[in-house]
Amino acid sequence: MTRRGINVLLIFALLFASCSDAGNSGAKKNVVKVAFWGSPDEIGIIKDSAKDWEAAHPEVEVRFEHTPFGGYTSKILTRIAGGAAPDIIATEVNMFVSFATKGVLEDLNPFIAKDETFSLSDFFPEVADRFTVDGKVFAIPRDTAPFACVFYNKDLFDKEGIPYPKDDWTWEDLLEKAKQLTRTDEMGRVTQYGFYGWAWQNFVYGAGGALVDDIKQPRKCLLTRPESKEGLQFFTDLINKHKVMPTPVALANLGMGVDIMFSSGRLAMFLSGVWETPTLRTRSFRWDVAMFPIHSKGIRKFGTGGTGYAILKSSRNKEVAWEVVKALTGPKGQEELAEKGLAQPARKTVAEGPAFAQNDAPPANKKMLNEAVRYTVYDPFHPQWREIEAKIITPELELLFNGRESVEEAAGKIVSQTDAVLNKETENRNSR
Questions:
Q1: What is the DSSP letter of 331?
Q2: Residue 428 — very low, low, confident or very high, per pLDDT cuts 50/70/90?
Q3: More confident position, 21 or 432
Q4: Cβ-contact 190, 182 below 8 angstroms
Q5: E strands of 165-268, at which residues?
Q6: Within its chain, how far is the Cα of 126 from the centroid?
Q7: CATH 3.40.50.720 for the 29-145+305-374 domain, yes or no
Q8: pLDDT category, 50, cuts 50, 70, 90?
Q9: From the candidate CATH numbers 3.20.20.450, 3.40.190.10, 3.20.20.120, 1.10.1040.10, the one assigned to the domain spanning 149-303+379-431
């Protein structure tokens, strides 16, 4: 081979090495993995919440890893055990209990203490407190989600000439409007329901009752208290006495989701959270929300959800992960979620600003949720509470709501079985 040919080969070799190095350089981005859940409508919204931060930090790739909500906790714990965990996880306020009690979350206090750009006081204190255990902050709130939204179909209300519900309405107002908006055919079959709600806890809390004696250290179930039973009775009467709300079996037999029933005029009102908004905005009808009604005793309380982002102890990239968590929960990230209707921001200034409360997109009355945060009640902070719900509370309440048990029977069984679990856990903790 001639000297010229050798030189040409050397040039090509150098070019190839240069291209290879450039490719490798691109591949060496600092990758931060974020586990999250979400419906098809939500996935794109959540991924977009970090796009501005990523654009400003091209050396970091935020890799979102979608995991279905069902089984989310167990799948994340399995990944941790297998050494294949993400750096950051989205955690709902109740599944957070499972992660916190397993000891898999990083204490964020050291990051907060040395970060002058961050203050936990910018967030609603109720949700920030939920993510704090024994003074240690284990997650930064992304959103809060009171079960305070009674969605109502304006077209159905206008058709019947019924005034829209207002935030100061009562349980009696709810029942009266639900009766007025329930329709049956000549065979007596319900063709339009006045109300549907899954958040039965609201009625227990609103009547002055409670699920347990102490949310943070539950030792006793209180569903047999008179106030708790009053709330359960009102809820089940909506189904079995007044027949303004479908039983769980009837709802399943209808073969359509509540959102379809609501938007198609088969349901006048339903109780849920603001996360229903993105789907409802795609439907062609007029709707809004009112705050869950107040009891005649003057009590107003309801359950709540919400989400935060936590860094796992197993992450080898904690410093960068902290910056990503700040981006996901920062004003820009929360504004993105708020504008698209997915969530009520956990940052007070964002929740009160143009991205949420002052945003003209439906629901028009979403600003009431900023007041609603004050009345929220979280589920008991107990490592086995979700199991108690699944194996004890839900089966008994299904019997109650389907008219197969009385409130007295269902509440009695729930209390006896739940107390046995709580007492056993207390004994185990004391013996350690």
A1: H
A2: low
A3: 432
A4: yes
A5: 183-184, 190-192, 196-197
A6: 14
A7: no
A8: confident
A9: 3.40.190.10
d(CA 100, CA 118): 22
Identity of the amino acid at 397:
L
299 in Cβ contact with 90 (< 8 Å): no
Tokens of 335: 């504004």
- Using alpha carbons, select from 235, 225, 247, 216 the residue that is nearest to residue 383: 216
221 forms bridges with which residues in the sheet?
Answer: 212
Are 29-145+305-374 and 149-303+379-431 in the same CATH fold? yes
The label of the residue with tokens 């949310």 reads: 215
- Count CB neighbours of 224 within 10 A: 17
| pLDDT computed for residue 145 by the predictor | 97
Range list of β-strands (E), 193-320: 196-197, 269-272, 287-291, 302-311
What is the structure's pLDDT at 21? Answer: 39
Question: Is pLDDT above 50 for 81?
Answer: yes
Distance CA 98, CA 387 (A): 10
32 phi and psi angles, rounded to 5 deg = -115, 120
Q: Is residue 19's pLDDT more than 90?
A: no
pTM greater than 0.85 = yes
The confidence band for 257, taking pLDDT boundaries of 50, 70 and 90, is confident
Give the whole-angstrom CA distance, residue 232 versus residue 135. 35
Round to whole Å and give the CA distance between 243 and 333. 43
The C-alpha torsion from 400 through 405 and 408 to 413, rounded to 10°, is -80
